[in-house]
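RECORD TYPE: protein structure
NAME: Cobalt-precorrin 5A hydrolase / precorrin-3B C17-methyltransferase
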Amino acid sequence: MIGLFTATAQGKKAAASLSLGPDAVLVDGPVKPALQRLWPSLGTAVFFMGAGAVTRLVAPLLENRRDDPGIVCVHDGFVIALTSAGNVLATEIADTLNITAVPTSDYVGESPLDEIVESLDTAIDGDIAACGAAVLAGDPIRLLNPLGFVLPDMPANLQPDNYGTEWTVLIDDRLPALRPKGKLLRLIPKTLVVGVGSSRGVTQEAVQAAFALLESEHDLDPRAVKSFATIDVKADEAGIQDAVADWGFWHGEDDGCTPPITIHTAAELAAVEVPNPSATVADELGTASVAEAAALLTARELGGRVELAAPKTNSANVTIAAARILPD
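PREDICTED:
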């Protein structure tokens, strides 16, 4: 339903001149109570009054981009879309009345994809500007979210069952097993905590080789790492510290930011249940696990629900594991 609201004779004359189809209704009576009564059934509300007055009328009724009607106001030679759902109708009205349309965007960034990046703190792999332009143009986009992250309200043209589209958006901390046809935009949330243990005097090169196994053996994207973790007796290992700094240089987005190293005591790690405990490590350090336990414990401290994304993996004299912070 398209509701046409006006409080003046001039506005009624302009509204009556429009041919917007059988769903358009010129609403009689006071605007505010009529708007409140009809709000649940409105697809678009068109107001023949100033934008300030319209804003005060609709503000208490707005809930979210997905469910709210389009809001358009016609005033002083302009047709202003106050919500992006009203852009198309605003252009149609402007063409009929031979005045100027003013479209809008509801998104904080340049497109709704920017809101995903902000809300999930993602790294970006692909042309987000071009994909965002396709979203705003209304092109069908396939949106894949296999880990079930909670997303901001998205427009209806972003759907998981949109097949054969030019663009696919994949939100995942893993490397894609298969690349879809067409163009791919990957948004990589920082969900992983990497636990690391080593022998005394370990080299930076040995730790780096172990870190590389997260990608080559477990298909985890290195840009998804939020934090590293280890036991306190390994906190001063130069090889671990230098390898983490090097990781940040190569994978830390534009600013080269290095993820922190969270330190735990043996007693804290010993209380964590792990799938691959070691009696040898328990005898030496007082905990049956360093890498798995440190990763799981730190991930819980950062996010609550967790799972082991990469079990204990050995490389020479280094052991690593990765835990994933799951969506709430």
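COMMENT: The chain has eleven helices and 16 strands.
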